Write a sequence for this structure.
């Protein structure tokens, strides 16, 4: 367990070849079964990865069966669909996924060269549990090879026909080979049929001009038509073209990297997918996806009409308050800092009023560019997935809803084949936001969070609490260090990235930009107040002097002196996180522990968010009942007409029903108490103020994301960033632990 | 005894079905089908020979379409077709094939379910399963059973096969057999969900067939036909089970007053401890169904809804469903032990919650049961003599983790309860993952297969799992995500029994 061994074989049999992979410890091999020599491994991924696994025997076994189409004409015979096999290899203790496909080759018997790719793993359940992932990944890979191959094949035929045209006397060929005119004309007919079939596809290939003489043309035709003994078959590279071959090999490596991850990571990723794909309102911490705040859950309870739909998002536009910190306070601060060139604070963005047009369904984006990468539908050529007719690939289908749809409906009868929606959907592997388990099992793309256990052991609790509190509430942390500590500070920045809350963006590019802006490993320029709207964690050269106006709003960590200047934390949320009473055997376990705590926090944030949303829609409903003459109705989405909205901190006076109960500890909540009985409660008393600040900040992040999403959907310009001006009193702490 | 088709009678029917098949696939003309049935005998001997080995050698001197349909005409005899016992709506057919040292793969018998496959397709299945199995080193009768799953979009079917060795013929020579279940391509997604169950049942069938072939190869297939019936009937039930969209407003998540919180806590605790598999028994079907809808919301995976069922009519127990309702007052141990996973039994009349032993102990009990069942079949006994000693244990209290969850859940306003519950279950999953990671780290550090008691104690302390019920709850979730963790933590009971024996003998 743990280590993943991958082994990858590519073989080309008489008409077949194979590629495969082995899981645990890591390697991949490839082999070829040629018409002349039988099955030979082509290559493994990673190289030399087959280890003790008997690749030759395995290839012989998987290539033993012919996968050719027994169709009635030449076109059918050359267009065999891919075939997939999962088989166990008890002797080796392995299980393999084998993907057979055919490449076209004018010089091969029957014009086809069946190839196969296989993936071999020691985990007996992994492949069948994630069969569709394997199927999809390898279908994409074969599609790359096939598309390159089609171009080469078409070029081959055209050249061949060209040469035949140039021949003055076909009799010459017949004389040399001793074949009858009939067979030769059948060959030419075959070529013409195949050429006709190919022309229907892409017509973009430029034929290279070859000045072939009649003599060389004659020789070529003889070689290609009658396989002369000793002639070698073309390599995979020659069959697909250099660029497509490299692209295909890269795709194989990518697929291997994706699939070699432990089965548990694949399974959790699949579960998360239900929640992740809604796009607009995901909350993440560092690079780990935490929770989706969209109203997808409302689909779970269609009969509970009270739930708030995201079509009510319009009302959020009037809510762009950024709590007490980003609101009026911010404006005042800006007025005092007139000499600085400031961006307009976010409160004004609500004046970019959202049009009251019915918004597109939020939480589900109709077309997302980043989906194309994994969406089989985006492939330009007809792939095996679409050929299956029976299976419809629908990335838009709502999994949450389908989870509650009776399966009998899915199955249908023979008469309704287009019914299997839902589970066969393209999976999205966003490089910047991943499932939390990827980090725990060391297979993440980033190293954020690495070193946290050392950090916990190195600094005392009070020190770290201040750092994390600042990060979680959105107060920028600057780590000052000398030049010679640049690497160490950079590592600290990477490590603490996992505590920077953010929202996963819609496109990968956008997300990359954002991640780049949120942290800066080594800043050598002075920073402006406006930088604080994006930068949350900065490693900085000590020589740089911070402007006074910035210094007051940031937490400063002196790396060499091991001191920190920032608002002290008095809550209890981070206690469990940093407690040294608990012993963790390794960093991964500690990261898993952190993820539990962060998720628990996210649940609280979710409850807060939903109740605010609920309160606001209830309020809208009430105001709409007041009649059309109401001033709120005249400008329902501007901050000005609802002056009380931006100025009040969320939740302080708004209706906040029953939420407090959720925050109570288990001992306080009595199971026997009537759940319907509601008591008015001052919720702020139950949660320490600092913890509430964290929760509020996270709620604001989600809201901001939704508003910007709404602006995107309605084609309005993106709202400018928000600067949080935090006036909390600060204290200096020194690390006491050595 | 199932009906055996008379060849002449079946012929027209088969052809008719095959024509339909050809039309649906849009490929084969009626003439092509006739050829594929072996009515055209102009095939070349050599191509037939090579086809026997799975290779289609196209003669370049002839256009390929002249060759490809000249299949071997005697490979599938007409008297091997029979109807699959039990009524099925999803299994296309089940077939047994054998590797013949002279003619290659042969179809030994076909039980047609929803349709009769053409000879070409049947031969495809045989070839795919048996080619490549020749000349393998481990071909004695004790060789392990190899499993294969094929997706053949070309012919529109997928099939799962098990390749095994058994004696055959007058001289009882070891032969390679395969038992395959063929399903239409369009059903493969649902099939994938049930693959584990099908695999388990098919392995049982393979054991039965092997035993029969050892006993008397000539009557084995006929006896086996009878034994197929329970398999087909039970798989049919599993295949069609699924829950309709629930009426959430009626569930105990929104109306807890129907039951005491303490009872709900016990049920949910045991449900999660037994990997989400629960049987609800009682006398009122409607009440049972609402209870099932409620309990489903605590499942850790959405797919389990597709393996659950409300009360059915007639109300019977179906092994291996995640959650099911049975209108009865009692459920026998012999029924419950057939499931692969431990089960919780909730009695809505008496409010008693019972559960089978934990996963690692349950596995041993089930193995004993299956062995005893095979033995009793072998000896032609009417009943399985297996008796479990106290299969069920009563669940007396709920786990603190569940109490906390329910407390917070019922503290939520109604409109938030469903999402809150979804997230809370996800939090439990994260805790289970932390447990998995902890155990893995300790295993890697100490290079052992299972942890010592002290280490387990340490893990429980640091993960705040002081209560046994909490610990088993997280283990129940963890085992689903990471098979094998139960044995790593709790030890292999089979191993313990062995140790006890050693100690016993050493003491003398």
């Amino acid at each position: 367990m743990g280590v993943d061994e991958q082994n990858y074989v590519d073989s080309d049999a008489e008409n077949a070849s194979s590629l495969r992979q082995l899981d645990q410890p890591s390697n991949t091999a490839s082999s070829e079964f040629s018409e002349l020599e039988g099955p030979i491994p082509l290559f493994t991924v990673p190289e030399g990865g087959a280890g003790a696994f008997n690749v030759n025997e395995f290839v012989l076994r998987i290539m033993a069966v012919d996968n050719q189409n027994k169709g009635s004409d030449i076109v059918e015979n050359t267009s065999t669909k891919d075939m997939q096999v999962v088989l166990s290899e008890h002797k080796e203790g392995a299980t393999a996924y084998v993907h057979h496909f055919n490449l076209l080759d004018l010089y091969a018997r029957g014009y086809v060269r069946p190839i196969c790719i296989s993936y071999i793993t020691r985990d007996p359940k992994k492949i069948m549990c994630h069969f569709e992932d394997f199927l999809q990944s390898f279908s994409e890979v074969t599609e790359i090879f096939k598309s390159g191959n089609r171009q080469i094949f078409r070029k081959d035929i055209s050249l061949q026909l060209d040469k035949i045209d140039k021949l003055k006397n076909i009799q010459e060929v017949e004389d040399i080979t001793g074949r009858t005119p009939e067979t030769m004309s059948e060959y030419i007919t075959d070529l013409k049929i195949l050429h006709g079939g190919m022309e229907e596809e892409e017509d973009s290939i430029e034929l290279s001009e070859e000045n072939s003489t009649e003599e060389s043309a004659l020789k070529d035709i003889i070689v290609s038509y009658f396989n002369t003994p000793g002639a070698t078959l073309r390599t995979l590279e020659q069959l697909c073209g250099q660029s497509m071959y490299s692209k295909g090999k890269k795709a194989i490596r990518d697929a291997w990297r994706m699939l070699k991850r432990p089965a548990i990571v694949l399974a959790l990723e699949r579960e998360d997918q239900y929640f992740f794909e809604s796009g607009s309102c995901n909350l993440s911490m560092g690079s780990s996806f935490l929770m989706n705040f969209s109203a997808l859950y409302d689909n779970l309870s269609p009969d509970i009409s009270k739930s708030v739909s995201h079509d009510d998002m319009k009302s959020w536009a009037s809510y762009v308050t950024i709590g007490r910190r980003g609101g009026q306070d911010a404006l005042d601060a800006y007025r005092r800092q007139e000499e600085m060139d400031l961006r307009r604070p976010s409160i004004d963005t609500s004046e970019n009023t959202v049009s009251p047009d019915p918004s597109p369904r939020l939480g589900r984006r109709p077309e997302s560019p980043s989906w194309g990468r994994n969406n089989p539908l985006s492939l330009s050529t007809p792939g095996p997935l679409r050929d299956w007719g029976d299976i419809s690939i629908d990335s838009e289908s709502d999994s949450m809803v389908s989870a509650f749809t009776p399966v009998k409906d899915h199955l249908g009868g023979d008469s309704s084949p287009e019914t299997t929606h839902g589970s066969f959907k393209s999976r999205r592997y966003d490089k910047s936001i991943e499932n939390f388990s990827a980090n725990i099992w060391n297979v993440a793309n980033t190293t954020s969070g690495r070193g946290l256990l050392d950090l916990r052991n190195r600094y005392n609790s009070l020190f770290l609490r201040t750092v994390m509190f600042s990060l979680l509430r959105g107060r920028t942390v600057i780590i000052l260090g000398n030049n010679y500590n640049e690497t160490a500070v950079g590592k600290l920045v990477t490590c603490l990235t996992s505590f920077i809350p953010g929202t996963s963006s819609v496109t990968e590019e956008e997300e990359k930009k954002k991640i780049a802006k949120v942290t800066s490993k080594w800043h050598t320029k002075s920073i402006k107040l406006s930088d604080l709207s994006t930068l949350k964690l900065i490693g900085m050269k000590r020589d740089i002097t911070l402007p006074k106006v910035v210094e007051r709003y940031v937490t400063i960590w002196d790396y060499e002196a091991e001191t920190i200047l920032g608002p002290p934390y008095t809550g209890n949320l981070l206690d469990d996180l940093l407690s040294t009473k608990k012993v963790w055997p390794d960093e991964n376990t500690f990261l898993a522990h952190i993820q539990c705590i962060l998720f628990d926090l996210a649940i609280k944030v979710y409850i807060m968010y939903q109740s605010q949303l609920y309160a606001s829609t209830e309020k809208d409903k009430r105001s709409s009942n007041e009649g059309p003459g109401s001033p709120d109705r005249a400008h329902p989405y501007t901050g000005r007409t609802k002056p009380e909205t931006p100025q009040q901190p969320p939740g302080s006076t708004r209706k906040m029903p029953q939420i407090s109960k959720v925050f109570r500890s288990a001992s306080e909540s009595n199971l026997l108490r009537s759940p319907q009985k509601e008591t008015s409660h001052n919720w702020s008393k139950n949660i320490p103020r600092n913890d509430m600040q964290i929760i509020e900040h996270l709620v604001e992040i989600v809201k901001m994301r939704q508003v910007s999403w709404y602006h995107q959907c309605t084609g309005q310009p993106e709202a400018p960033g928000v600067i949080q001006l935090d006036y909390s009193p600060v204290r200096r702490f020194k690390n006491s632990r050595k | 005894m199932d009906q055996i088709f008379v060849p002449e009678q079946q012929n027209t029917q088969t052809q008719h079905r095959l024509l339909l098949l050809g039309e649906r696939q849009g490929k084969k003309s009626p003439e092509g089908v006739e050829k594929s049935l072996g009515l055209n005998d102009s095939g070349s001997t050599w191509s037939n020979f090579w086809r026997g080995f799975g290779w289609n050698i196209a003669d370049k001197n002839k256009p390929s379409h002249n060759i490809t349909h000249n299949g071997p005409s005697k490979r599938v005899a007409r008297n091997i077709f029979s109807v699959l016992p039990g009524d099925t709506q999803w299994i296309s057919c089940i077939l047994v094939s054998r590797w013949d040292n002279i003619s290659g793969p042969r179809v030994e018998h076909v039980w047609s379910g929803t349709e009769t496959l053409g000879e070409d397709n049947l031969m495809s299945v045989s070839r795919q399963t048996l080619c490549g199995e020749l000349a393998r080193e481990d071909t004695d009768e004790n060789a392990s059973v190899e499993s294969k799953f094929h997706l053949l979009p070309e012919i529109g079917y997928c099939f799962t096969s098990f390749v095994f060795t058994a004696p055959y013929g007058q001289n009882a020579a070891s032969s390679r057999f395969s038992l395959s279940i063929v399903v239409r391509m369009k059903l493969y997604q649902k099939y994938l969900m049930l693959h584990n169950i099908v695999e388990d049942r098919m392995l049982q069938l393979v054991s039965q067939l092997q035993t029969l072939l050892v006993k008397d190869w000539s009557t084995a297939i006929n006896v086996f036909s009878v034994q197929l019936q329970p398999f087909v009937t039970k798989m049919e039930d599993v295949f069609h089970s699924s829950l309709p969209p629930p009426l959430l407003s009626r569930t105990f998540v929104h109306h807890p007053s129907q039951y005491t919180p303490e009872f709900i806590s016990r049920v949910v605790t045991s449900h999660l401890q037994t990997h989400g598999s629960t049987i609800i028994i009682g006398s009122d079907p409607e009440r049972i169904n609402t209870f099932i809808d409620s309990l489903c919301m605590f499942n850790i995976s959405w797919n389990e809804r597709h393996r659950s069922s409300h009360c059915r009519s007639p109300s019977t127990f179906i092994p291996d469903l995640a959650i099911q309702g049975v209108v009865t007052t009692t459920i026998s141990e012999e029924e419950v032990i057939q499931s692969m996973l431990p089960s919780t039994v909730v009695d809505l009349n008496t409010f008693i919650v019972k559960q089978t032993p934990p996963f690692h102990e349950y596995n041993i009990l089930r193995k004993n049961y299956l062995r005893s069942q095979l033995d009793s079949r072998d000896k032609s006994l009417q009943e399985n003599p297996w008796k479990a000693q106290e299969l069920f244990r009563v669940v007396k209290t709920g786990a603190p983790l569940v109490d906390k969850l329910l407390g917070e859940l019922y503290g939520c306003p109604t409109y938030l309860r469903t999402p809150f519950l979804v997230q809370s279950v996800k939090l439990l999953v994260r805790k289970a993952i932390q447990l998995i990671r902890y155990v893995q780290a300790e295993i890697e550090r100490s290079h052992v297969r299972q942890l010592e008691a002290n280490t387990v104690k340490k893990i429980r302390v640091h993960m705040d799992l002081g209560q046994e019920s909490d610990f088993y709850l997280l283990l129940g979730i963890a085992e689903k995500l990471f098979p094998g963790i139960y044995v790593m933590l709790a030890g292999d009971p089979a191993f313990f029994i062995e140790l006890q024996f050693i100690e016993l003998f050493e003491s003398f």
About this structure: Residues 587-625 of chain A form the longest helix (39 residues).
